[in-house]
Amino acid sequence: MNTIFRKSMLSVAGLAFAGGVFAGPIAAHAAPAEGKPVAVAVQQSASKPQGEQSRITLNDEQTANVKAIIAATKKAGLPERAAVISIATSLQESKLENLGHLGDMNDHDSLGLFQQRPSSGWGTPEQITDPEYSTTAFLKGLKQVDGWQDMPLTEAAQTVQVSAYPDAYAQWEQQATDLVGQHWNS
Predict the structure, then answer these.
(1) In order along the chain (186 residues), what is the average pLDDT of each group of 10 residues?
(2) Closest Cα to residue 76, out of 126, 23, 133?
(3) Per-residue confidence (pLDDT) for residue 183, from 0 to 100
(4) What is the pLDDT of residue 47?
(5) CA 76 – CA 158 distance, rounded (Å)
(6) Which of 92, 98, 150, 164 is 20 to 30 Å from the Cα of 156, by its Cα?
(7) What's the rounded Cα separation, in Å, for the pair 80 and 78?
(8) Cα–Cα distance between 143 and 78 in angstroms, integer?
(9) Which SS3 state, helix, strand or coil, does residue 182 take?
(10) All residues at 6 or more sequence positions from 49 whose CB lies less than 8 Å from its CB, including other chains
(11) Cα(76)–Cα(122) distance, rounded to whole angstroms?
(12) Alpha-carbon separation of residue 51 from 54, 55, 95, 154 (angstroms)
């Protein structure tokens, strides 16, 4: 008896769900009853920044690196969202500074704006410390991530970077968004 009741409830729930799926889009576009407005939720392609946000003041070199990342993103034919992900990643990895070898303070052989490693196949030290090359390499990895345009920034960045701190990218999303908004059309 308990099994029959449970199956009946699951059937009713399934019908209710199916009805909502099929009627939902139709109902959302129906004319408002008696002239009352209807609110329709629209999903944005980029999610709202996750968690507490960080921000730093940029010097001229860092601003030039922002512009280089944006130029490489445009050259690759990618949208502003790719530049936001790239800049947020670089903010986390290097604070937008094109880092050379840091000796004992260096994370393995990580270099450049994205802390890419020659030993991991990102390129030569000279290539990795070229902002256009390193951004293009990052974007090449990003394009291989299915659905990167719609996933949270930190998930997209982490899939490319494979960092020991996968959630750290999220804190830079608002500043990266602001920087892209400021420099995309300049």
Answers:
(1) 43 40 35 38 49 95 98 98 98 93 62 92 94 97 97 96 92 97 95
(2) 133
(3) 98
(4) 56
(5) 20
(6) 98
(7) 7
(8) 9
(9) helix
(10) 153, 170, 173, 174, 177
(11) 17
(12) 10, 13, 19, 11
